[in-house]
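Annex B. Sample input.
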Amino acid sequence: MSFDELVHYFRLGGLTMVAILSSSVLALGVAIERLLALWGVGPGAHELGQTVARHLLRGDVAAARSAAERATTLSADLFRAGFERAQKTVGPALDAAVDRERQQLALKMKRGLWILGTIGATTPFVGLFGTVAGIMRSFKELGVDVEQGGTGGSAAVMAGISEALVATAAGIVVAVEAVVLYNMFQARLGRLNVELKLIAEEFVELLREAPRPAAGAPEPGAPAASPTPAPAPGS
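Annex B, continued. Sample output.
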């Protein structure tokens, strides 16, 4: 099919083809944005998790927290929330805080995917609407032709119907595109969620086993308090 034929069919589709083409461009835009946003999330989480675990295994909580605060990967918020909560408790509240941050991270990674699902579900119906409108237009032109004394041959009707079916075909193509992209991202997010859950569980276990400063002792890495000067003799 030549470029001129594509332009011809696009013009025949009218507003329906505009809506379908816009949906295709939107689906590709969402896919590219999500691909860039999720790029390196898994490797970054693994690398940061290994760094934090290495410091915690040595008992250096301050270095582990510093590594989490310097990190720019999306999963860094998960570690920061764990260190913040560990300052107060290492009980069930620590698990809840880390898991809550992990779920928020999952929502961030899933952002915008509903657009792909909506496009995949609706564009076939948009194309079908364009086809029905085209068939109605063809029969209307046939009736006008008959009223004006024309033969109203079936060839003209069949040509109009075949052109109208282009809208349905275009809607199906765009729907397949959106559904494939949606399922691809869903599979990738499912794998990332499992990986983040395993990393979070290991992090919480190591954080619980890490040595904690005694009551009244300064936190590792904090500046030591200056000693109180002794009173002068005779005061």
